Amino acid sequence: MGSRNTTSTKTALYTYSPSPPSSPPAAAVLSPCAACKVLRRRCVDKCVLAPYFPPTDPQKFTNAHRVFGASNIIKLLQEIPVSQRADAVSSMVYEANARIRDPVYGCAGAIFQLQKQVSELQAQLARAQAEAVNVQAQNANLMALICMGMSHTLHDGAALAVDALAAAPLNESFSLDDGSLHGGASAAIWEAPIWT
After folding, report:
1. CA-CA distance, 196 to 101, in Å (whole number)?
2. C-alpha distances in angstroms, 136 versus 73, 128, 145, 147, 188?
3. Regarding predicted confidence, which is higher, 22 or 152?
4. Among 41, 73, 119, 178, which is most exposed with the fewest C-beta within 10 angstroms?
């Protein structure tokens, strides 16, 4: 009698109805969901777990079942609205995977590691920002020194030129040809380096 029930169940699942070839038979279940496969039970049309545990990913349900248990998953899914079920399954699967990786801390361990990484990166960012401010200050000081050096050099060069003009007799004329100085003053005044 046990063999009759098995064959009648199988034939009931794969019954052929004369419908158009484009649509599958309404009573036929082609492949059970991953949850029903793992639990070794028949997957009914209104299986609560079928939309969230497809047959192509049995490990997803296996991990969630190992941590939470099938009855708790089903009970939780039945208690919440349909619109929130996908998020609930996603959370359960994430927690289950984290709990399998880290049996002691689970999700809390992953969160702690991420928070630690965020604080290390914030400290590294603060150090880089301080270093950038330091480099900007050094550049500003260097530019100030360069400007002061240029003004001293120009001032010293102008003072030497004024002194040379004052020392030269008034009747001599000065002319510049090819960088040479003609007249009574020496050419060293004009060849003083601008940059020191």
Report:
1. 67
2. 59, 12, 14, 16, 39
3. 152
4. 178
Full DSSP string of 116-133? HHHHHHHHHHHHHHHHHH
CA distances from 158 to 29, 91, 103 (A): 101, 80, 82
Q: Is the pLDDT of residue 72 over 70?
A: yes
For 88, the token pair is 């609930």
SS3 32: coil
pLDDT digits (tens, 9 = 90+) for 139-189: 999 998 888 877 777 666 666 666 665 665 555 455 555 544 444 455 555
Backbone angles phi, psi at 180, to 5 degrees: -100, 155
Helix pair angle (70-79, 58-68), 10° resolution? 90
52/89 Cα distance (integer angstroms): 7
pLDDT for 90 beyond 50: yes
Contacts of residue 57, defined as CB under 8 A and 6 or more positions apart, other chains included, come to 34
Give dist(CA 3, CA 177) in Å, integer: 122
The 3-class secondary structure across 67-102, one letter per residue, is HHCHHHHHHHHHHCCHHHHHHHHHHHHHHHHHHHHC
At residue 172, what are phi and psi to the nearest 5 degrees?
Answer: -85, 140
Please say whether the beta carbons of 181 and 164 come within 8 A. no
